[in-house]
Amino acid sequence: MPSHHDADHGDSHHDSESTPLLPRGIAHEGESGRSGIHPTHFLRVTWRSSSNVSKYVNILWPFVLVAIILNFATNAPLWIFATSYIGMVPAANLLGFAGQEFARKMPKVAGILIETTFGSIVEIILFIVLIAKHHVEEGNGDEGNLIPIIQAAILGSILTNLLLCLGLCFLVGGLRQHTKNQKFHGIVSEVGSGLLLVAAFGLLIPSAFYSALKSETVKALSEDFTTGKLHHDIVRISQMTSIVLMIAFVLYVVYCCTSAHSIFDEVIEMDEHGDLDHAEDMKKPKLTMTETFVALGLSIAIVIVLLIILVNQIEHVVESGVPDQFLGLILLPLVEKAAEHLTAIDEAWDGVINVALYHCLGPSIQTALFNAPLVVLVGWVMGKPMDLNFEIFMIALLVLSILVVGNFLRDQESNWLEGSLLVIVYVIIAIASFYYPDPDVATSNGLEGLVQQNVTIPAELYERLLALGVQK
Predict the structure, then answer these.
(1) Which of 48, 177, 271, 301 is found 20 to 30 A from 291 (Cα to Cα)?
(2) Domains of the chain by range and CATH?
(3) pLDDT tens track for 185-201
(4) Checking DSSP bridges between strand 182-183 and strand 413-414, what pairing results, if any?
């Protein structure tokens, strides 16, 4: 597709298909024209951020300081949670912007992969902090048990990207170009939807295994196949499945970096020609490599502090009446993916629909194939029984959402109506999750839930429950 842009950068475009992903120098659009670090310029560039929406988010920075002060000076868990939750938005935005600046200095395909990885750092840190905070031996019932929240956050992250973020991208892009449908390349949607189906299959297996066999433990109370044995098997299946899913993620990255590198590069180049704000973006001042590393280190440190503060208040928030599933499925993914969503929506508004689509599907793929398996393996190392035995209701939501999104991607076109429908589906899921019962109540079959909660059961009642076929 010849154009003035191709004339200026034609050589680099042709060379990109044969040169390695990591360059010897810095890509043209990533050059800052400076070196080292200049504090005033650094603050001005980071304040401006990547878009007007991201810039306005920076007015929330005072909440970071307020959250830290409240955490050490008061005993108001709900206020601490609320301020740290809001403070996570500008912190995640800075991390996302720093990731973008670093990605600018890489070839385009590698840059998007790196940018997506940096966008998932908040999520990875959140999962690790949650599993570290989880204590199986504490209290009774839900006290100290954060695994249901982790599981809900895993699925919530995927659903937020697939439904809310993608829906808003289709919506804003369709509104700005309402006279025509937005067209995107088939390879992005095909690879993305295919990998998501594989990931959903992997996440479904432990849950299906548990649902199929949990009733069989009643018939084998005096034999080897007890509830404890079933739970042990589920944990082992989850750990082995996690390893396989991470292998699939590595294959996906290798495919993007080698087999489909030139194809993805061509798709991104096509998007640049349709970028309505490309000239303005090129004129924006950039960070130097040193400033980029400073921004990355600073933002990661702030994110870790805020997430530790936020996670410490989760039990108080649940006790105040916010359901576990709503907290994990809706609230946490919204804040952890804030930067990624703002970036994708801004790209869709500018007409860069393929890149926006990748910023919706890419993080979902990484969550399903890497982040979720990673937290299972981290729990394995820590000696904590993190598994992939999700609620069947949640797995059904995931599979149905993937099918709905796949159906909308099939014709390789989008409009504001499809975007609105995806957002509506997400709102319906949010409503249902708010009324979904406590995980221990939802997953247990009477006696099992009481045993998990260390409730003492009279012998006579115990025998009657067994006679009625209630699972141990």
Answers:
(1) 271
(2) 25-436 (1.20.1420.30), 444-472 (no CATH)
(3) 777 777 777 888 888 88
(4) antiparallel
